[in-house]
From TrEMBL:
This is Nucleoid-associated protein. It comes from Halomonas korlensis. Belongs to the YejK family. InterPro entries: Nucleoid_associated_NdpA (IPR007358). Keywords: Cytoplasm.
Amino acid sequence: MPILHCVAHRLEKGAGDQPLTLVAAETELPGSAVLDDLLARLNDAYHAKQKSWGRFADTTPEGRTTSPFPAELAAYLDGSRDFLALSRQIAERLTTLVDAHLSVSGHLLIAHARQGDAEHLLVALLHEREGFGVAEDMAIAPVRQLNLTQMSLAARINLGQWRSDSPSRQYLSWTHDRGGRKLAEGLAELLGAEEGIDATGETRTLLRAFSDFVEQEDLPEEQSREKTEALIDYASDQARRGEPITLEALSEVLDEQQPKAFFEHIRNADYGLSAEIPPDKRTLTQFRRFAGRAGGVSISFDSHLLGSSIEYDDTQDRLIIKQVPKQLREQLKRRQRN
């Protein structure tokens, strides 16, 4: 992952009720293998966070831009503003935001990096944690480490998608942890961002479309399980890389013999899904299939149906199916008529 520019500013919390102050870096961080590894791990940690996805808002109804940041970023990319100056402007605004919602110090890391053909700008507030190390004389010594998993706030912009002739609705993402709603809203306002897509809702709709597809195709249990695993593997891999789920690519993964089958199912049923969906990892991890066979009875269903269309009464060891599959319902009615 070639790092084009990177800087780290310090946000220092004073004693008592003293406000947070910015200790701005004078120079960019020099490139090194350690910095490459740090940014790679930071990206992995960011992809695992709960996020909102969207884009830069155009203008307010009065014609004003919602934030100066998009224009400043564009000026940097066009070569009329240097990276260090851009990073300081970001840091100054974030210092005010963080001081209003948090009471801890941290390091603000801002990086412009290239990953494959894509370029990204990553902004992340990192805190420190106490740790231990072994010195050269083999003595145990305390050390302070950057806590990569504890990102109070972070944002990532796909610069190529933003600057393309037809930008997507989700080239910008920012952290949205539980309990930090005000902080997330403040970060979005600072960036001039608006949500362009509901990652959780879109992922749930995608999984519902998949369940409908499996039921419609009346697939054997083994095939159904294989397709479920293929979907989860593909979507989870995209989530790890910070890339969206592409419906056409997913359709090909699910069935190499009929690569358009699932895509056509989605289009014909009109689920309202976007062509590209940012995967929600929490929703994906909950999507597994329960299956069991005993005494001539074989049952399998997607785990997310438990508690809605399927209930389990553990006191009587009884499974209640509220929505009987159409084909099974027709078979049962024919049996009753006979």
